[in-house]
Amino acid sequence: MESNQPLCCDTTEIHMDLVEQVRSQLPQDEILYDLAELFKIFGDSTRIKILYALLESELCVCDLAKLMEVSQSAVSHQLRVLKGSKLVKFRREGKVLYYSLADDHVLSILNQGMDHLTE
Amino acid sequence: MESNQPLCCDTTEIHMDLVEQVRSQLPQDEILYDLAELFKIFGDSTRIKILYALLESELCVCDLAKLMEVSQSAVSHQLRVLKGSKLVKFRREGKVLYYSLADDHVLSILNQGMDHLTE
DNA sequence: CTAACATATGAATAACTGTTCATGTGTTCA
DNA sequence: TGAACACATGAACAGTTATTCATATGTTAG
């Protein structure tokens, strides 16, 4: 039994040159990490719904809360995340904060995702 | 003190008509949920890295493990997820499974994300 | 058939994430 | 100045997720 545990491809080193070549083409780890962080934002249905709503119109926090039937606090927490990634912006009018999409990359990203689903 | 806790916009109902109109434009909840699930896949740096690697070349599991310096098991688990979302496919050659991207939506989605980061 | 090996997978654990609850902040109006 | 309100935020809790470890599966060579 005495397993000397061949971790993976220990003997053959199947495609070591290819591995090196591909490695040299990869974006830096930090960039990949940031990219994952960005997609993580889209990976929550509450946030997706907020984004789709803002695609239609600028809305205030309580509009969003009503629209989505979740608490004001939950919406506010998520808007904070979206703000942090520069996906939404807001303007103040008295007590009310009106949120809107920061740019139209949001739409592009959402559309690409939809394309993959509906084919 | 006796808070009757005005949940949110209780009195004014600021933009109730607008809320209804926006609601009617939103995709179905189930679609939004599926879309979030898809983006969740992209929201992990291990999986992002796998996808970028496969963008360069078809690779076997242990190539990927070496390339990314993670365990074979971790790669295998993630490939399972990617397979489940039809983002990668594979072909068998003897004992070795070669993975590749399922289609070029993957590239489109990654590129849109990159665009948002690098502007 | 059996040993070797590439890969898959189930269980367990640690880290992370989203919501709720309670409360704080900033603005308006009287 | 103080009450009312829209919104933000910190702490806590529950649910989710990625990795590791151990082991199982499926294929090849002898």
Write down the CATH topology of chain A.
Answer: Arc Repressor Mutant, subunit A
Q: Which sequence of strands runs across the widest sheet of chain A?
A: 1-3-2
Strand proportion of chain A = 5-15%
> Most extensive interface: pair and counts?
A-B, 60 and 60 residues
Number of strands of chain A: 3
**What's the architecture of chain A, going by CATH?**
Orthogonal Bundle
CATH superfamily of chain A: Winged helix-like DNA-binding domain superfamily/Winged helix DNA-binding domain
Radius of gyration of chain A: 22 Å
What's the domain count of chain A? 1
Order of helices and strands of chain A: HHHEHHEEH
Mean pLDDT of chain A: 90
Number of helices of chain A: 6
**Biggest sheet of chain A, in brief?**
3 strands, antiparallel
User: Regions of chain A with pLDDT < 50 over 5+ consecutive residues?
Assistant: 1-6
Global shape of chain A: elongated
Question: Roughly what percent helix of chain A?
Answer: 55-70%
CATH level-1 class of chain A: Mainly Alpha
Distance between the termini of chain A: 50 Å
